[in-house]
Design brief:
Distance between the termini: 35 Å
Number of helices: 22
Strand content: under 5%
Shape: globular
Radius of gyration: 26 Å
Helix content: 55-70%
Strand order of the largest sheet: 1-4
Order of helices and strands: HHEHEEEHHHHHHHHHHHHHHHHHHH
Largest sheet: 2 strands, antiparallel
Amino acid sequence: MHYDEILQQIGSFGFYQKRVYSMLAFPCMSVGALMFVAYVVLNTPKHRCKIPLYENDTFEVQDERHARLINFTIPPSDDPLLVYDKCQVYDVTNVTSLEGYSQLDNTRLVKCSEWVYDKSVFYDTFTSVNNIVCEDALKTSHIQMFFFVGVFAGSLISGLISDRFGRTFNTCLCFSLTFVFAVAVTFSPGFYTFATGQFFIGACAMGGFTSITIHSMEMVGPEKRLWTGMLVEIFFPIGTCFLALMAYLIRSWQWTNLAIAIPMVFYLSFWWIIPESPRWLISKSRKKEALKIIQTAAKVNSRQAPDDVSYITGTSLSSNQGNMWHVLRSPVLLRRWLILCFTWMVVSMTYYGVTMNAGNIGGNFYLNFFLMGLVEIPGVMFAMLILDRLGRRWSNAGTMIAGGVACLSTIPTALLGSPSLQPLTITLALVGKASAAAAFAIVYMFTAEILPTMVRNVGLGTCSCAARIGGMLAPYIAKSGELIGGKFGKVEPLVIFGALSVIAGLMLLLLPETLGQQLPDTIKDGEMFGRKKNKQSNIETEVASPFIESRQ
C-alpha cells in the first residue's frame, strides 16, 4: 500500500493537517516580510548636500537665513521634480565663514562628502546613516542582489539538509540561523558586513520556507497537494503588510529590522510541536515513528488508523530519471523549457521589482507598500478561481499580459497627466503587482504539468533558478528609475516590467494546454503532448524536489 492511500484512510486534509498547516503559516509570513525588509531599510530618503561649515544643517528649511545659505551653496537640480542638486555644491574652498557664501561666484561645482536627509518618511535608514548615495547609490541594489544570491544558494543546500535530516530539523535550523543573522545585520558597521548578512538571511529564510512548503504538501492527500502549495502564496503578502505596518510605526531601520527578526524566536518551538513528515520518515525506514504520527492524525481526524505501516511504501522516484541533456536534445521540449524559464524570470522580476518601485511612483510610501502586499491576496485567489475554468495556459498568459498592459498604461498617466492622475498611476501599478502574484501562483503548476515526469524535477529546478536570476535583476531595474529621475523615471521600471510581461504572456500561448489532459511521462510523451488529443486524467503531479515552492 502506498502512503497516499493511508492519507485517504486517515483524512487527506482533516483537522490535524489544518492545525499543522496553520502553525506553518506563521514562518511563511516572516519570510514574506524578510523578502522586502532590505528594500525598506535601504530606502534612500530625499537628500541634498550638507552646507559646508554649517553644523546644524537640516533638509528642512529652518528660516530665511537658512534658505539663503542653501541657495548660495547648493546648485539647482537638473531633475524638474527636485529643487536642489543631490550630489554637488558650489566650490567654497576659499570661504572661511558662513557670511562669505553670499560672495561666491557660483560657477565651479564640486562633489560633496556630507549630506542631509528628509526625515518626514524615515527617521533613518541604513542608506542615510552610511551615506550610500550619489556615486555609491547602486550599492543598495548590490545588497539586495546578494540577498537573492543567498536565496539561490539556500534553496539548493537546504533541500539536501531537509532530505538528510528531516523537514522539521531543517525548518528549526534555518529559522534559528535567520534570527541570528537578522539580529547581526541590525548592528552591522558597514556595507560589506551588511551585504554578507543579507546573503545568509536570504539563504536561511528561503531554506526554511522550502522545508515548510514541502512539509505542508507531504502531509496532505494528492488531490489537495498543489492547492496547499498555492495557498502558501497568501501568507507571503500578510508578512509584507506586517512589514509595512512596522516600518510606518517605527521609522528607524534598526528597530524595524528587529521587529521582523524577533518573532522568529518562537519558531524554535516547532521542534516540539510540529511533527516530522511521515512520508519522509517512511522513506528513511523509520516506520515506527511514522506510525505514531499517523495514528495521532487519525485520532484527531476521527478516522480509523492502521495498526501497522511496515507494508507502506513512500514516494519512490523512477529509476529512469532524466536530466537536462534529454531536454536539450529535443527541439520541442527545449523550446517549451526556454519559454518557461523566460516566464519564471520575468514573473519573479516583476513581482519583486514593482514592489521595490513603490516609493518612486508618488503618494504615501507606507500606503503604497502596504497595498502592494495586500493586492496579492485577491491576485492569488483569482488565480485559484480561473485555473480550472480557463485552463493553465490562458490563465498564466492572461495574468501576465494583463499585468504587463497595466504597467505600460502608467506611461500616459505619469508623463502626460496632471498630479491629479497620480492615484491612477498607483492603481495601475497595483494591478500589475496583483497580476504578477497570480501568475507566480499559476506558473509552478503549469510547468509541473507540461514537463514529462522523467525530467520534471530537473526542469522545475532550472526554471526556479531562472526565477532567482529575475529576483537578482529586479533591484537594479527598480533603482534605475530613481537614477534617471524626472517624470519618466517614476514609471521607467514599470515600462520594463510591463513590456517583458506582455512578451512572456504571448510566448506562453505557444505552449499546449494541460488542464484535463493525461500528463506526459517519457520524453516521447512530452514531444507528442499537445499534438494529439489526450485522454482526460485526474493524475496529480507529485514533485520530489527542493524547488517545490514557486515564490523564489
